[in-house]
Amino acid sequence: MKDNRNGGTNLSGEAKHWKPPENGREGPPESPEKEKIDTIYRVATEWAQRMEKSRISEYLELLHSPWRLIWLNVLSGTARGVGIAIGFTFFAATIIYVLQVLGALNLPIIGDYIADIVRIVQHQLELNTY
Fold this sequence. Notes:
The chain is mainly alpha-helical. It has a domain at 84-130. The chain has helices spanning 4-7, 32-53, 56-63, 66-104, 108-127. It is elongated and about 85 Å long. Keywords: Membrane, Transmembrane, Transmembrane helix. This is Signal transduction histidine kinase. The chain crosses the membrane at residues 70-99.
């Protein structure tokens, strides 16, 4: 029979290996340096995952090709402008429709005010035929 402290084997003669604790409490205590290294590793891994999620590499590639960057900005600006124009058209049409309905109700003070606004808008639309 060999001594476990000196030979590193147990009663059956097999090599003894340390296994990680199942509940996190057992096992040899970690040194403060090991804990610091583990913490740094965890933080670095977290940062790397966040950078991958933010697609920073694609952004850096885009910065190295200025013509592609300009083209993408032209396309996005055009799409944004068309979207704003369509959205404002629907919004303005809805407001004019609501004002016409309110004007048809013949409310005493509000009806006259809304009727004036509708007349002005319709007059401007008739003048500006594009």
